[in-house]
Structure to design on (222 residues):
């Protein structure tokens, strides 16, 4: 079946640092999505990517849809304490979304 | 707009009993809804796709007789965990598909004791 490999699994960074995480897939997706999940909540959409090669920003967040449609990255610039959480990549194909395993972001004061 | 309400947010039930979780799209119609399960520190795993007016489609390894899904209207899908056991304790999340994208509910924490 379709699988997404997301890395890193967790990150410990200093406030103010930039963050980068990525996802690769064994198959092609039509749409790549990046979500953030806070404890006890459902995931919230951060960025959606619809075209291969597309680079999209949402405030301090930037994500790109790989040319091969099998990968994507998410960057967070100048991290702040409220960026703490779990970030999931997700691929959309065949009318359903498959999630990566998540990147748990910790920010040190 | 595009709000999905999930109820209850938390439920504790005794082993052997059944629990129903509701997923409602509040301001849009959703012909398709999805049910996910998330164990602690794990990813969201798709359990089934709920289609209004027809049978749900279950992912491999998910028991359809244990996890009953009913999508009786364009704004409501329900997931019933039957004969719950402690290993069914998990975070259950629904999602509704819109014209542009998907909206997730806030999840239901199920604890079976």
């Amino acid at each position: 079946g379709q699988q997404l490999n997301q890395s890193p699994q967790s990150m410990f960074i200093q406030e103010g640092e930039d963050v980068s995480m990525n996802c690769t897939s064994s198959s092609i997706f039509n749409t790549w999505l990046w979500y953030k999940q806070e404890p006890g909540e459902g995931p919230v959409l951060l960025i959606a990517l619809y075209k291969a090669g597309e680079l999209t920003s949402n405030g301090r967040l930037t994500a790109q849809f790989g040319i091969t449609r099998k990968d994507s990255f998410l960057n967070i610039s100048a991290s702040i304490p409220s960026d703490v959480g779990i970030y999931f990549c997700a691929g959309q194909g065949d009318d359903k979304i498959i999630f990566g395993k998540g990147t748990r972001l910790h920010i040190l004061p | 707009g595009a709000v999905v309400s999930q109820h209850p947010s938390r439920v504790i039930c005794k082993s052997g009993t059944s629990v129903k979780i509701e997923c409602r799209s509040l301001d849009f119609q959703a012909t398709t809804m999805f049910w996910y399960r998330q164990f602690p520190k794990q990813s969201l795993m798709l359990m089934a796709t709920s289609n209004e007016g027809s049978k749900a489609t279950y992912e491999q390894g998910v028991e359809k007789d244990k996890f009953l899904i009913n999508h009786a209207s364009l704004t409501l899908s329900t997931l019933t965990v039957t004969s719950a056991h402690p290993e069914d304790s998990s975070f259950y999340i629904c999602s509704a598909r819109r014209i542009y994208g998907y909206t997730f509910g806030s999840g239901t924490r199920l604890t079976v004791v």
Remarks:
- The mean pLDDT of chain B is 93.
- The longest strand of chain B covers residues 90-97.
